[in-house]
Amino acid sequence: EDSSSGPERAISVAEVEPIIKDFASRWKAAIELMHNDVITSFSNFLCGMEILRAALTQLLLYYTRLSDCMKRIAGGSGLNKDLVSISSIMYEIRKYSRTF
C-alpha cells in the first residue's frame, strides 16, 4: 500500500486540474453513452432505467465530493471556472433517467 496516498498527503492544484478539465469536457457525452447503453442492453426498460439512475446518482455523489475537496486545496478556487455546476449535472440526470 502506498503510504503517500493517505489523508495526510497534500494534493496540489496541478494534480487535480487535469481531472477537472477532463471531466468538464466529457461528462455530458458520457452520460448520453450510458443512457444509450442501458436502452440497448436491458430488455426490461424500467430495470435498466433504475440501474442508470443509481449509476448517475453515484456519479453526482462522487463529483460533489470532488467539488468540496477543491475548496480545501490551496489555490483550488482558481479551478472553479472549470467545475461543472451540480445543477447542470442534476439537470442531465433528470433528463436521461425519466421513465415514460
TrEMBL record:
Signal peptide: none
Domain of life: Eukaryota
MF terms in GO: syntaxin binding
One of the protein's GO biological processes: retrograde transport, endosome to Golgi
Entry GO CC: cytosol; GARP complex
InterPro entries referenced in this protein's UniProt entry, alphabetically: Vps52 (IPR007258)
PANTHER family per record: SUPPRESSOR OF ACTIN MUTATIONS 2/VACUOLAR PROTEIN SORTING 52, VACUOLAR PROTEIN SORTING-ASSOCIATED PROTEIN 52 HOMOLOG
Entry protein name: Vacuolar protein sorting-associated protein 52 A
Natural source organism: Striga hermonthica (Purple witchweed)
